[in-house]
Amino acid sequence: MDFWDKIRHLDRRVIFILMVLGVGIPLVTRIGLPIRITPDVRRVYDFIEGLNPGEIILVSYDHDTGTLPEMIPMSDAILRHAFSKDLKIVGMALRAEGSGIGRQNIRRIAGEFGKEEGIDFVFLGYRPELTATILGLGSSIGRVFPKDDRGFLIEKLPLMQKVLNYGDIDLVISISDDDTPVYWINYANARFQAKIVPAVTAVMATTFFPFLNSHQAIGMVAGLKGAAEYEKLIGISGSAGRGMDAQSIAHLVVIGFIAVGNLAYFLGRKK
Amino acid sequence: MRRSFPIIVCFAFGIVMLAQFFIPSGFSSNVRSEITDWAQIIYASALIVGIVGLMKYHAIRISRRSDGWFYNLITILSLVFMAFIGFAFGRMDGSPFMWLFNYMMAPMQASVFSLLAFFVASAAYRGFQARNAEAVLLLASTVFIMFGIASVGNSIRPFSDIAVWILNNPSMAARRGIFIGVGLGTIAVSLRVILGVERTYLGKE
């Protein structure tokens, strides 16, 4: 076995170790790679920036725990922006796991800004069957969610007394690791003209370009990069920026593997 | 009757939901709300059926001592334990349920998902080779997008511009084609189901 054959059949443990170093070193030592703001994220920021205090954003946690490291920085950055502008947050989940994630996340960020549950934000909990839920919210939120996540009747909550349906909601953000925002666009936007923002994992981003192009979505925050851009826009240095360093180096490691793998393939074949 | 009744129910609700979409009235809205309420109730009931099916599947494998039966046992025990903890102590912040959710379930799922990076790296090294023209195209677009999206390449103008062009043109065109195809397919299948032509959802005769 010559040199290039050895390289071609490199032990996968070597690949894994290089990947560990590629991801681990930037997490420990902050590199601070530059982050350029993309138009899709800028549009989301500008839209929220343009809302008046007291206006309402519905944030739906439509993801599992597997993608938490990618989703939470997005949610944190958007919520911090919204609470800093005194916007009201109505949280909900179309995934059972999203219920636990969303409730804790909204309360944590609301706590940083001294916001009060029921007045400045509510968390409605989880409902199954996303099509029926999204359509139902167009008629009456109170009918789909008669009680909030704590078991309080929503008609007793000061915030929900002025939120009947999509007509009272200024923006819907679906934080999702699958194509759930497509359902929000198909039913809440097409049917009720709700303004939608998909906040999705990077691998799902391409699904939403047609909707951005047709202006059925205001903008998009995609993956850790989108979260890092949002953090930059609101002027904070959070977990997304640090994660983005690791992700960028990991991308370069994979590109390096592709280059070496191809080099070994062609040089090995010549012999 | 066992087969014709579901077909009649499906036809009636299918036509009503189709018609209400085009009738903007209070009555139509009430009908939609009523039906979507029922859809949620039926879906929630189906979850119970799903849990029973899951338990049955794993119980059979445990009783037969099939390969990996120990993992089937862990699945059942985890399911029962989480449900018990949730019902007994609630699931609000600080409860044992949320402790298990935050410190066991979430890290385990995130760990499994993060393994993807290692398998992608290994697969990219071994399998992503320019063997033919199609593979070269795929390889080039992958490298441009990965490099253009990563922070380093994102700041280098030609790379980021090429990445954005690939995403906004060929990729989006393909996505649009897929969406249109899925949309037309959905309409066709829905009509077949509503009109009773497609009956596979009823199961075997």
Mean pLDDT of chain A: 92
Query: Largest interface, per-chain counts?
Result: A-B, 62 and 56 residues
Helix content of chain A: 40-55%
Second CATH tier, the architecture of the largest domain in chain A: 3-Layer(aba) Sandwich
CATH topology of the largest domain in chain A: Rossmann fold
Strands in their spatial order, largest beta sheet of chain A: 3-2-1-4-5-6
| Strand segment count of chain B | 0
Which whole number gives the mean pLDDT of chain B?
89
Strand content of chain B: under 5%
Count of domains of chain B: 2
Structural class of chain A: alpha/beta
- Biggest β-sheet of chain A, characterized? 6 strands, parallel
Write out the CATH superfamily name of the largest domain in chain A. Answer: Response regulator
Overall geometry of chain A: elongated
User: Unreliable segments of chain A (pLDDT under 50, ≥5 consecutive)?
Assistant: none
How many helices of chain A in DSSP terms? Answer: 11
Number of domains of chain A: 2
Produce the secondary structure layout.
The complex is a heterodimer of chains A (271) and B (205).
Chain A: H1 3-8, H2 12-28, H3 39-49, E1 56-62, H4 68-84, E2 88-93, H5 96-112, E3 121-126, H6 130-139, H7 141-144, E4 171-176, H8 180-192, E5 196-200, H9 209-213, E6 221-222, H10 223-234, H11 239-270
Parallel strand pairs in A: 1-2, 1-4, 2-3, 4-5, 5-6
Chain B: H1 4-21, H2 26-63, H3 69-89, H4 96-127, H5 133-149, H6 151-154, H7 157-194
Keywords:
heterodimer, A: 271 residues, alpha/beta, Rossmann fold, six-stranded parallel sheet, 11 helices, B: 205 residues, extended
Précis, in short:
With 271 residues, chain A is of the alpha/beta class.
